[in-house]
Design brief:
single chain; about 270 residues; alpha/beta; five-stranded mixed sheet; 8 helices; 11 strands; binds NADPH dihydro-nicotinamide-adenine-dinucleotide phosphate; binds the ligand O=C(O)C1=N[C@H](C(=O)O)C[C@H](O)C1
Length: about 270
């Protein structure tokens, strides 16, 4: 009996899913059990005894996929973005009924992107102004990107904790969209351009200086080490984990308080 992790990919024929199929097939400690596309039956996951499903589909598909997985005790490693609070709550409810099952939702599996979010969080309280610009290929369904939304949320949380004043902005008249999306008081701008893959800049400003953090994903293979890390860790991480950093920075990840299972298992990250 092989002790390899039995892994399926949902969205297997997509830009990310096809990369994930290759990565799982190349991993010595994993066995690809299923490569499913739109319309394929999720029952294949149970008939192949899948342990972990990687979801790289679409905002309109991911919750139904996960409700099936969690309902059958199949762990999820989710890259699909476009999440809302209401949909996260539905996922938490499903996890409540399956206490041994883990789901990781990572808006970005790129190590550099995770570090960008961490560095932005650390820098946030030192600057009067901050805005986020994300830049992607023109096939992307959601805007702003999940990474940019999470980056802005982490920045806003850090600024709140530090007691920072609202950002200066004298705008009194603007065309719709001119100041970007407002994510907890942080403007987020989305560029869609042929020739791009996935890129983000965080711009901090104060008197006499601008501090910019930039990350560029040049191809989708760059996300795969993070995807495989998620697969290897999720089996021993019950409940909902938000963000790959909880598996990357073990020394800093909040311990799962005993018996603090939220719905089902401790939830890490907001
Ligand atoms: N976390 C991360 O690091 C990253 C996350 N992403 C996210 O991953 C998602 C996919 O991105 P990308 O690969 O570019 O998108 P693509 O459109 O290239 O791929 C999505 C694939 O999923 C398929 N699909 C849709 N619904 C289902 C379903 N219910 N079951 C199975 N397959 C389904 C689509 O089929 P069809 O072609 O028929 O529509 C398509 O083949 C997006 O949400 C994106 O934001 C992307 C890059 C990195
Ligand atoms: O759609 C993409 O391509 C990407 N989506 C993710 C997001 O929405 O943050 C991650 C990365 O930016 C690529």
């Amino acid at each position: 009996m092989s002790n390899r992790i039995r892994v399926a990919v949902l969205g297997a024929r997509g830009r990310m899913g096809s990369e994930a199929v290759k990565a799982v097939e190349a991993a010595a400690d994993m066995e690809l059990t299923a490569a499913l596309g739109r319309g394929d039956s999720l029952d294949t996951l149970t008939s192949t005894d899948t342990q972990v499903a990687i979801d790289l589909t679409h905002p309109d598909s991911v919750l139904k996929n996960l409700e099936f997985c969690v309902g059958h005790g199949i762990h999820g490693v989710v890259g699909t973005t476009g999440w809302s609070g209401e949909r996260l709550d539905r996922l938490r409810d499903k996890l409540a009924a399956s206490p041994g099952t883990g789901v990781l939702i990572a808006p970005n599996f790129g190590i550099g992107a995770v570090l960008t979010m961490r560095f932005a969080q650390q820098a946030a309280r030192f600057f009067e102004s901050v805005e986020v610009v994300e830049l992607h290929h023109p096939h992307k369904a959601d805007a702003p990107s999940g990474t940019a939304v999470r980056t802005a949320q982490l920045i806003a949380e850090a600024r709140r904790s530090a007691g920072c004043a609202p950002q200066p902005d004298a705008t009194s008249t603007a065309l719709d969209g001119a100041r970007g999306a407002d994510v907890d008081g942080v403007p987020v701008h989305a560029v869609r351009l042929r020739g791009l893959v996935a890129h983000q800049e965080v711009l901090f400003g104060d008197e006499g200086e601008v501090f910019t953090i930039r990350h560029d994903s040049m191809n989708r293979g760059s996300f795969m080490p993070g995807v495989l890390l998620g697969v290897r860790r999720i089996i021993s991480a019950p409940g909902l984990t938000m963000g790959l950093e909880h598996f990357l920075f073990d020394d800093e990840a909040p311990a799962a308080p005993a018996g603090s299972a939220g719905a089902s298992g401790a939830e890490q990250g907001s």
